[in-house]
Design a protein that fits this description.
- This protein is an alpha/beta fold.
- It has three domains: about 25-175, Rossmann fold (3-Layer(aba) Sandwich); about 205-435, Rossmann fold (3-Layer(aba) Sandwich), CATH 3.40.50; about 440-550, ANL, C-terminal domain (GMP Synthetase, Chain A, domain 3, 2-Layer Sandwich).
- It has 17 helices and 27 strands.
- It has a nine-stranded mixed β-sheet, with helices on both faces. It has a five-stranded parallel β-sheet with strand order 4-3-5-6-7, with helices on both faces.
- Helix 11 (about 275-285) links the parallel strand 12 and strand 13.
- The longest helix is centred in the first third of the chain and has 16 residues, at about 40-55.
- It is globular.
């Protein structure tokens, strides 16, 4: 077979951008995007993306440079996931909850040449640009606004989104990547500081993860997808492009509101949703929640969902699938593949099994839990902890301008070291126990904050729970629990000693929180993750005090 070889016909670069063109052909008259009273078909979305790509190219920005977007889940945000890379640029979605200082760091580090910004976030972006030193060329600013009349004259704005769509050429021939390793997206990891970690993905990795995500979740043709997951979070776990592949309907929401979510579910006959476990918690605890008319597939990830939360949510009709991923792999790469025999188990056992992360998806070559020092696999006993490692085609190219962090994460042994601590069960399913920085070492014993949180969530009075380390002169560290309680807890809210005693009945003594802090709401990132670094700061400042606290 020596005469058979790679050629131009069989080596076209892989890119998910081709999904949009196919959607316009196959699902042209079907609804692609819904937002309030407005809707588009797939033909219209395809044309709008081509026009926008044409207008971006006309600005004369060098191909391969970074174009940023800071917007909530509105139609323009969805379109730009296609239009920016179709114009030959690297798409950079910015977290909408970041302050101007951090946004400024990202814009300078990425050397962004163009920023699309929603009208509600314009002040943050303009302030971020004002922090530039003279040596940095500020990016052009494009305003995303539904009523854009007269706004182009505002200081600092180059143009408006809709004006650029109108000026673009509908027959524009979009720019296919020269090779599939060409960078396509740039996303900054949570907790960006003055030394940001910008994750760069290629067209190839995004193509693979998009296909993989559809297959793993068994997404059918033409689902109705409600955007409760921020699109800026790993490009919506790659379902931005995935919905085009299957001709789905994207129901856009500017912000998460449980009442609006339930209204949208019934109005549009939603079939699929994604979100962090906190979203499940909010849906389950919404006072007006009632059983769904038909099941909704809900994919959750970002943190292990407590079994009690899974149980409550599924009782309403949500079919919960738990997955694991990170920005460095662009989506879900480990999921709890369900076995039919588990259906016969009691509801509490099914919920416990669903809280495990599971096994690698088809697009990942391998996933394991290893000793971070030796690199050897840990025992498959469900208790020996190690670091979760991955390898496969959906891994990032690396961190932008940070070869040291890249080599630390992607080592010479061929694994991506995630920094997540987990165990491998005898059946080959892995389970996250914590981030390595969140493990609490008390008296020489490793305490998994996730396990303690799961117990706290089983208390009927608890709405949210997070556990971090608190300094202790004798034990080194002890677990400190931060809780928010459900509204209307009767006959009265539990006291600190009652919560501690509750944990004593369900946990080994060394894992029981020594301190309980009650808060009205736990601090969170824009993706719904609890900001444990904030809670750790509070616990550290508390020192070794043992009295109850209420914030």
């Amino acid at each position: 077979m020596e005469e058979l070889k790679r050629g131009s016909a069989n080596s076209t670069p892989l890119t998910p951008l081709t999904f949009l063109e196919r959607a316009a052909t196959v699902y042209g008259d079907c609804i692609s995007v819904i937002y309030n009273s407005m809707s588009y078909t797939w033909c219209q979305t395809h044309e709008r993306c081509l026009k926008m790509a044409s207008s971006i190219v006309s600005l004369g920005i060098q191909r391969g440079r970074v174009v940023s977007v800071m917007a909530p889940n509105v139609p323009a945000m969805y379109e730009l996931q296609f239009a920016v890379p179709m114009a030959g640029y690297v798409l950079n979605n910015i977290n909408t909850r970041l302050d101007s200082r951090t946004v400024s760091v990202i814009l300078r580090h990425s050397e962004s040449k163009l920023v699309f910004v929603d009208f509600q976030l314009l002040g943050i972006v303009l302030e971020a640009i004002s922090l530039f030193s003279p040596k940095f060329q500020p990016p052009l600013v494009i305003l995303i606004e539904r009523d854009e009349k007269g706004l182009v004259s505002m200081a600092g704005i180059h143009d408006t989104y809709e004006a650029m769509v109108r000026k673009g050429a509908s027959g524009f021939k979009w720019l296919s990547p020269e090779n599939e390793w060409e960078p396509m997206t740039l996303n900054y990891t949570s907790g960006t500081t003055s030394s940001p970690k910008g994750v760069v993905h290629s067209h190839r990795s995004i193509f693979v993860i998009t296909f993989d995500s559809l297959i793993n979740w068994s997404v059918p043709k033409q689902p109705v997808y409600l955007w409760t997951l921020p699109m800026f979070h790993s490009n919506g776990w790659s379902y931005t492009w995935g919905m085009a592949a299957v001709g789905g309907t994207n129901v856009c929401l500017r912000k998460f509101d449980a009442r609006v979510v339930y209204e949208s579910i019934y109005r549009y006959n939603v079939t699929h949703m994604c979100g962090a476990p906190v979203i499940l918690n909010m849906l389950a605890n919404y006072p007006g929640a009632r059983p769904l008319k038909s099941p909704i597939q809900f994919l959750t990830g970002g943190a292990p969902p407590p079994a009690a939360v899974v149980l409550r949510t599924e009782s309403l009709g949500f079919s919960v699938t738990h997955g694991y991923g990170l920005t460095e792999v662009a989506g879900v790469v480990v999921s709890c593949a369900w076995k039919s025999k588990w259906n016969a188990f009691p509801a509490t056992e099914r919920a416990r099994l669903k809280a495990r992360q599971g096994v690698r998806t088809l697009g990942v070559t391998a996933a394991d839990v290893v000793d971070p020092e030796s690199g050897k696999s840990v025992k498959r006993d469900g208790s020996t902890m190690g670091e979760i490692v991955l390898r496969g085609a959906c891994l990032m190219l690396g961190y932008l301008k940070n070869p040291e962090a890249t080599s630390k994460c992607m080592r010479g042994d061929g694994w991506l070291y995630t920094g997540d601590v987990g165990v491998m069960h005898p059946d080959g399913y892995l389970e996250i126990k914590d981030r390595s920085k969140d493990i609490i070492i008390s008296g020489g014993e490793n305490v998994s904050s996730v396990e303690v949180e799961s117990v706290l969530y089983s208390n009927p009075a608890v709405n949210e729970a997070a556990v971090v380390a608190r300094p202790d002169d004798y034990w080194g560290e002890t677990p400190c629990a931060f809780l928010s309680l459900k509204e209307g807890v009767s006959p009265k809210p539990p006291a600190e000693n009652e919560m501690i005693e509750f944990c004593r009945t369900k946990l080994p003594h060394y894992m029981v929180p020594r301190t309980v802090v009650f808060m009205s709401e736990l601090p969170k990132t824009a993706t719904g993750k609890v900001q444990k670094f904030t809670l750790r700061d509070i616990a550290y400042k508390m020192g070794s005090m043992a009295s109850a606290s209420r914030l």
